[in-house]
Amino acid sequence: MKKLNDFPFSHALVLGLAKSGTAAAKVLLANDKKVRVNDRNATKEDEVVMQLQALGAEVIVGEHPLEVLDDIEIIVKNPGIPYENPIIVEAERRNIPIITEIEIAYSLVEGSIIGITGSNGKTTTTTLVTEMLEKSNQPVKVAGNIGIVAIDAAQSLKKEETLVLELSSFQLLGINKFRPKIAVLLNIFEAHLDYHKTMEHYVQAKCNIFKQQTSDDYLVYNADDPVITDAVRHAKALLIPFSTKRNLENGAWIDDEWIYFKDEKVMKLNEVVLVGDHNIENILAAVAAAKLDGATNEGIRKVLTTFSGVKHRLQYIDTIDGRLFYNDSKATNLLATQKALTAFKQPTILLAGGLDRGNEFTDLLPYLSSVKAMVLFGQTKGKLQELGHQAGIETMELVENVDEAVKKAYAISNAGDVILLSPSCASWDQYRTFEERGDMFIQAVHKLV
Q: For the Mur ligase central domain, which residue ranges apply (predicted)?
């Protein structure tokens, strides 16, 4: 197991297990650190608890007693645990540093890191960058918020390999030294305010991705996003903009025919198979990051002429009796659904609803012109029904879950319609994850055949 670089702490508290906490605890123990693990939802009989105890960790489960902070020098926090947690509040009062496992992963990496964040498009862009490098015969691994724990990828990463990381604002709050060679900032809009409380705090979390960069590094950023263009004025890295609206001599851009990087034609725009105007932004960001890390135009072209989407992100599922089914379960906020709706000109049946975070949906109104019907579920179905009334949509159906929504949508559809799952809400009122919700949609579609 690799040794940690520049980690001057001897006693760590790992707060929250799951995959990232377990990986962090194992690395710390292997580096002869004293480790205490605390997870309120775990039990003494859990396999991972017994495993960590056998490795020498002190494990406290079933509660969050303040005593877990005694003699602790640093906390490795699960990204999902809010900062209002009493343990975190007390730790901050005691000036105990709080990090996420991304910081530990960074201490294990010898090669280059590409870090990618944004309110939307992270997974698509991360996947594109990784595949562009692979198709260009560049050694690469992918991890982070995309499902593979960064520490696990860092453990086996060779010096010549690039680590591509998808990073959430939750993860970026817990970094101090993390410094990607290439940072990518896709977009920033109002999201996760139940966690961050204010837009200012959310923006600061996202901008942590370039906080430690120097003039030897690159920052790929969305030149069409005013929040981002304001924020990157303070960056020390070399700025590499991307834009769908204007020519850029020093970045990635498009005209009516071509995708460019700086003054070089990369490939023809009409060869791209990924649908959605918003995905052009993701593509430009990916082209810039990949080119900076050695990708070839041919490698990029191989990806963009075949890549049709990431699972649960405007993913084409099937065409049944002339109806086109798309799974956009990852659309957990308004902007994601707005972008999904702009991808289609055909009559669309929108399947939406989920966790009620207290927000309204009126910002969707201008995007509903092609929506002929709505099938609604979850805590927000009443709010979305009211939105449908405001938009003049005559056909609206209220159902209990995604499985019923697919059956109802198919029953009221015609050949040529798009049936789109784009919930505009988090899944946690009914499903553990957006992936689980999307999988139910896929299964329900396949049952129609």
A: 116-290
